[in-house]
Design brief:
With about 375 residues, the protein is α/β, with parallel strands linked by helices. It has 2 domains: about 200 residues, Rossmann fold, CATH 3.40.50; about 160 residues, 3-Layer(aba) Sandwich (Rossmann fold). It is built from 14 helices and 12 strands. The chain has a 7-stranded parallel β-sheet with strand order 3-2-1-4-5-6-7. Strands 10-9-8-11-12 form a 5-stranded parallel β-sheet, sandwiched between helices.
Length: about 375
């Protein structure tokens, strides 16, 4: 059997797991380009992605920083010569780095991409066949059934003028995710499914690379802090005070004794401290930990749930919620649905994923989820 040559562009651990699960069954030669995100502690994310692929026969793995400045589609951008030239210069720099490492997309039989920027800068036309791997449930917006003529014009302008490939539903792109049952088929084209058994094995294999520093019995795991990292301490304290008091009914109902906070990788350290201070004063009999006190390194939410089971998971509609259901771990991981937890409060800094999606005019995603 002839080996396939596969090129992977990836910038997040969720897509990396999906990609690995997809390519494992076929004989192949694989090259990987990791896009390092801007800011935060993204070196840890890069290391996690490398760990995901480390037991595969990767021929070449390179790391490229995401461009700091890039102009996406808008009426202003397509008529602004300086922005057009800025994009072109950025694209040439990326191509130069890839050429230096002898990576040319024309030499591969399959190109795997996600929500990274770098892959979109090196795709030269709409004829190339791509496979897109979700980085979260919200990627479904790219599969919304809509005006094909408008999409065609928008894709043409972004590629020919702004020098990047705009991902949307197209005959030459196949979309993949580990779950697809939560979406409305009348609104969206549905992504292909990743093999459940292979994905589950890869996820469990990843747990072997993580050292548990402290085992917590039946913890109540809270993902995120629900406030933007850039707001000041005073506003953060007001919002978090409200949020923590609102947790009371869940804490009483499930008789919670231990809480683990799992903020995003680019969290604000001051906000985490404020959260823990307020929580400890509000619930002095409940022990609260950050995820960094529990594990030796950064891990995704799904892994935190696996390594802490049995546990309670306070879900505001995260991707992990649907992953855990798909791989049948709901007996040991009790999912507490709180999809509207922050929706009607008076603090405008409070945002669940649903609220963010609505602000971006993607509320069709929310309306289509079978909760």
């Amino acid at each position: 059997m002839i080996k396939k040559k596969i090129l992977i562009f990836v910038n997040n651990e969720y897509a990396a797991l999906n990609m690995k699960s997809y390519i494992q069954k076929q004989p192949k030669t694989v090259d990987v380009v990791i896009e390092k995100r801007l800011g935060g502690n993204n070196s840890e994310r890069v290391e996690l992605i490398k760990t995901i692929f480390n037991n595969m026969n990767i021929r070449k793995l390179i790391i490229i920083n995401r461009p700091k400045l890039f102009y996406f589609f808008s009426i202003n951008s397509i008529f602004n010569f300086s922005k057009i030239m800025s994009n072109l210069i950025t694209k040439r720099k990326i191509l130069k780095k890839l050429n230096r490492n002898k990576i040319d997309i024309n030499n591969y039989s399959e190109i795997l991409i996600t929500n990274d920027l770098i892959s979109k800068l090196v795709i030269k036309n709409h004829k190339i066949k791509l496979k897109y791997f979700f980085h979260g449930w919200g990627d479904i917006i790219q599969l919304k059934k809509s005006n094909t003529l408008f999409n065609f014009v928008k894709k043409f302008l972004t590629l020919k003028i702004l020098n990047y490939y705009l991902v949307s539903h197209h005959k030459n792109i196949k979309f993949y995710n580990v779950f697809n049952n939560i979406y409305d088929k009348k609104i969206f084209n549905i992504p292909y499914l990743i093999d459940e058994k292979i994905y589950k094995k890869n996820l469990f294999d990843l747990t072997k690379n993580v050292k548990v520093k402290k085992k917590i019995p039946y913890p109540f795991i809270i993902p995120g802090l629900f406030i933007p990292k850039y707001i000041n301490a005073e506003d953060a304290r007001k919002s978090l005070n409200y949020y923590i008091k609102k947790l009371n009914k869940y804490i009483i109902k499930y008789k919670i004794k231990h809480v683990i906070l799992k903020p995003k990788l680019n969290y604000n350290k001051k906000h985490l401290k404020i959260f823990k201070d307020i929580f400890s004063k509000t619930y002095p009999n409940i022990k609260i930990y950050s995820i960094f006190q529990i594990f030796s390194k950064y891990i995704p939410l799904e892994l935190a749930l696996l390594l802490n089971k049995p546990c309670y998971f306070f879900s505001t509609g995260t991707t992990a919620d649907h992953v855990i259901k798909r791989i049948s771990l709901t007996k040991k991981i009790k999912i507490i649905k709180a999809y509207n937890f922050t929706e009607n409060n008076k603090f405008h800094y409070f945002k669940s994923k649903q609220d963010v999606a609505k602000e971006k005019n993607t509320n069709l995603i929310i309306n289509s989820i079978n909760s």
